[in-house]
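Hi R.,

As promised on Friday, here is the backbone we talked about, encoded as structure tokens. Could you run it through your design pipeline when you get a chance and send me back a sequence?
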């Protein structure tokens, strides 16, 4: 399947400062495509959480951002890719489950905030 969209921006996430940069890039991308303040904020939140997860759980990774068409207007696609140890998706989507002593609500919050959510993970890494 071929999906029409914009050029993909690839943002390397190797340290905390790059998470803030990714958040700003994602929010600016949404605003440039006429997202309202609430939806642009959701895009920024998702980019922040995905970037944080890359550092916490894999040590590094990439965020891929692009604008895609949707039934009700444009959307921002954010894909997080890493070569970390992988995770059990069902466990990690359960609120309160944490592998790092955190609140354990991050991945579940991502799934709730996104209009479309998908993830794949095995011992070679993860794509969310």
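Update: got your reply. Pasting your designed sequence below so it's all in one thread:
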């Amino acid at each position: 399947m071929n999906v029409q969209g914009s050029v993909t921006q690839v943002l390397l996430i190797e340290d905390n400062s790059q998470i803030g940069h990714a958040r700003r890039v994602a929010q600016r991308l949404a605003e440039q495509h006429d997202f309202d303040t609430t939806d642009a904020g959701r895009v920024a939140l998702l980019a922040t959480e995905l970037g944080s997860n890359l550092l916490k759980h894999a040590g590094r990774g990439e965020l891929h951002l692009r604008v895609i068409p949707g039934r009700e207007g444009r959307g921002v696609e954010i894909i997080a890719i890493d070569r970390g140890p992988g995770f059990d998706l069902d466990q990690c989507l359960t609120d309160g489950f944490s592998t790092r002593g955190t609140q354990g609500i991050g991945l579940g919050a991502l799934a709730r905030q996104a209009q479309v959510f998908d993830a794949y993970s095995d011992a070679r890494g993860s794509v969310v």
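One thing I noticed while checking it: Helices lie at 16-32, 37-58, 89-92, 106-113.

Thanks again,
M.
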